[in-house]
Amino acid sequence: MTYIRETTLADLNYLADLFDKYRMFYDYESDLKGAGDFIAERLRLTDSKIFVAETDNKRLVGFVQLYPLYSSTRMKRLWLLNDLFVDKEHRGKGISVQLINISKELCKQTNACGLFLETAKTNLAGNTLYPKVGFSLDTGHNFYFWDIP
Question: Phi and psi (nearest 5°) for 29?
Fold first, then answer.
C-alpha cells in the first residue's frame, strides 16, 4: 500500500535522493548535494508544495512538486505541476495517479482554477498518463523560453 502525504523536513535525505533520480531521468548529471540543498530551500521558504508517496515500510518512492502561479485573466491562483517522479521499481502501480489526484485536491482547497504542466515530447509515459487523468494538450498556444546567456 502507498500513502500520499505532504513532505516534511524529516524527509529531506530520502526526497533529495528521489529528486536527484528525477533530474537524471531528464539527462542531468547526478548532484545529490545540490538536490538536497534545492529541496531544503523549497521547504524552508515554503514556496512550493511537495507531496510524497510512502510505502508501508516508510520508504519514499515518489513525489510531486507544485509551484503557485496566477492566472490574470481568470483572476485566480493556478498551480504549476513542475515535478512528478516515481522510482523505477514502483512504476505501473498507480502512484503517479495518486500524486496527481492530491495535486487536484490542492487546487480545490486553494480555490485555484487548475493545474498547468509541461513535459518532454520524449516522455512517453507522461504523455500517455496526462490525458488519461484529465489533462488536455494545449495546441492553441506557443510556449517560449529565455535562458540567461
Answer: -70, 150
CA distances from 75 to 71, 80, 95, 114, 140 (A): 6, 16, 32, 12, 21
Do residues 59 and 11 lie in contact, with contact meaning Cβ atoms separated by under 8 Å? no
Given CATH 3.40.630.30, say whether it is the number of domain 2-132.
yes
pLDDT (tens digit, 9 = 90+) per residue, 128-144? 999 999 999 999 988 88
What is d(CA 18, CA 105) in angstroms, rounded to the nearest whole number?
Answer: 23
End-to-end, the C-alpha distance of the chain in Å comes to: 46
DSSP for 89-131, please give it: GGTTSSHHHHHHHHHHHHHHHTT---EE----TT-HHHHHHHH
DSSP type of residue 58: S
Q: Which residues pair with 83 in a beta bridge?
A: 65
Q: Where are the domains of the chain?
A: 2-132
Instruction: Report the C-alpha gap between 90 and 88 in whole angstroms.
Output: 5
Q: What is the pLDDT of residues 52-79, one digit of tens each?
A: 999 999 999 999 999 999 999 999 999 9
